[in-house]
Amino acid sequence: MPKTNLMGYTQTQLEDLFAQIGEKPYRGKQLFKWLYNNRLFEFDLMTDLSKDLRQKLDDGYELRGLTLDQRRKSLDGPEKFLFRLDDGNPVESVLIPDGDRTTACISSQSGCALACKFCATGTMGLLRDLTVGEIIGQLVYLREVHGTHCFTNVVFMGMGEPLNNYGNLIEALEIMSSLLALGIAAKRITVSTSGVTPKIRKLADSKLKVRLALSLHAATQEKRLKIMPIAETFGLEKLMETVKYYTEVTGYRVTFEYVLLEGFNDTREDIKALIKLVHGIPCKVNLLAYNPVPGLEFKRPSDEKVNWFARELFPHMGAVTVRKSRGKEIDAACGQLAARHYQ
């Protein structure tokens, strides 16, 4: 019989498991800490568990992480990791250093069903949701390679729509933010969504108080429909009402991600529409020049155009940042490496 992989089990699930196998539930808490905090993957090394218990665990269970397929380091800092899951499907993670801050960009799905017209991951379709263990496994692997302090922040901005894998996302967030496990403060975790309106409200009500980023990319319903099919199901007006609700419940401002596509969403009229759209919502706007994807129609605007857009927008916003497009030679944009190598 194959062993059950415990990577991705929450503390409560481990405590329940130990009760089921006739052991004290608090042993689950001990294993929880060994696995995520100490990154110890062999039961025999867990010295506060009895020898008989360690043997029982070894007979039926394992602690197995992700399998690396490719690893690439960019000249300008970012490092991309392409993993192959047990069924052969790909998943990506990226480490992005920026001064005294390093962000781990992780995935929630292999592929994506949303088919945004500018996105490399969207060309793959949805292969499947990641398990909790596969989500957490990305961070565990990064720490195994680079040490416990290799990242300061985590963003769900890799492959997939996190809120379409909501149950596994929530359990992963619980493990990530537990002091006994990965110990990442909730305020340093950002969930990015393309706009799954009901789940945004549900996440707000979960009280986890992680940060929220909305992949906006167009400031009118008409334009959003042209590049993001999800806008047909979840209209912009209701979406913005829900985003505002999130800021009220959590006390955090939201980040609007806005990828500039040459000749599509980078005009003065787009600036006016964006100012009007976000009025009254505590927010910051992250601008990013498009990282072109072979086979897709959109082009990258000039740096001068991006800077002009930011200057025109800034007086009307609480904060505007221009994110550098980095790691081009390693296909660092989400989904690019996986889409290129997925068979």
What does this structure look like?
There is one protein chain. The radius of gyration is 21 Å and the shape is elongated. The two termini are 30 Å apart. The strands form three sheets. The protein has a ten-stranded mixed beta sheet. A two-stranded parallel ribbon has the order 1-2. Strands 7-8 form a two-stranded antiparallel sheet. The chain has helices spanning 11-20, 26-37, 51-60, 132-146, 166-177, 197-205, 221-227, 230-233, 236-250, 268-278, 303-313, 336-341; strands spanning 4-5, 61-62, 67-73, 79-84, 90-98, 101-105, 109-111, 126-129, 153-156, 189-193, 211-215, 254-260, 283-289, 320-323. The mean pLDDT is 94. The chain is built from twelve helices and 14 strands. The longest helix has 15 residues, at 132-146.
